[in-house]
Design goal:
It is built from four helices and seven strands; from the N terminus they run αββββααββαβ. By secondary structure, the protein is α/β, with parallel strands linked by helices.
Length: 144
């Protein structure tokens, strides 16, 4: 799988956006995961779903909708922080390492079309706008 993935073409961006965040001790930090997490009772991810789900900071009743047969779910079953390190962020905020934990976080499904066009042009910017409206300065990406 790894060897095959290394041969796949990756999009190149001529002028990627860049923002210099505040110091971490003053930053609001969010998690963006591709574990297809969603809260109990919310809409599950479907095959080919390029949408996202917002996860409230206090929710821990999350379901992992990632359905790849190549993914070992054992570690996630033992500790959700493997794919969604929310408790670690809370600890960092308590210690003053980061300023604040964002009020909401974002989850995508990892199974995306090869061109990732929808996420790149539609749902990604929409999710980013949601985080920006929450005052997020830094996003931690947890690819699954």
């Amino acid at each position: 799988m790894r060897m095959h993935s290394a041969t796949l073409p990756a999009p190149e961006f001529a002028n990627p956006a860049w923002v210099t965040p505040p110091d971490l001790a003053e930053a609001t930090v969010a998690i963006v995961t591709s574990a297809a997490l969603y809260a109990t009772g919310d809409e599950a991810f479907s095959a080919g779903d390029a949408g996202y789900r917002l996860i409230d900071r206090d929710r821990r009743d999350l379901v992992m909708g990632h359905w790849s047969p190549n993914f070992d779910r054992a570690a996630v079953a033992m500790d959700l922080n493997v794919v969604y390190p929310i408790d670690r962020l809370e600890e960092l905020a308590k210690r003053g390492v980061i300023g604040r934990v964002a009020p909401r976080h974002v989850s995508f499904a990892g199974n995306q079309p090869d061109d990732v066009a929808t996420i790149r042009l539609d749902t990604g910017p929409a999710a980013a706008a949601q985080l920006r409206s929450d005052g997020v300065d830094v996003a931690i990406l947890t690819p699954v």
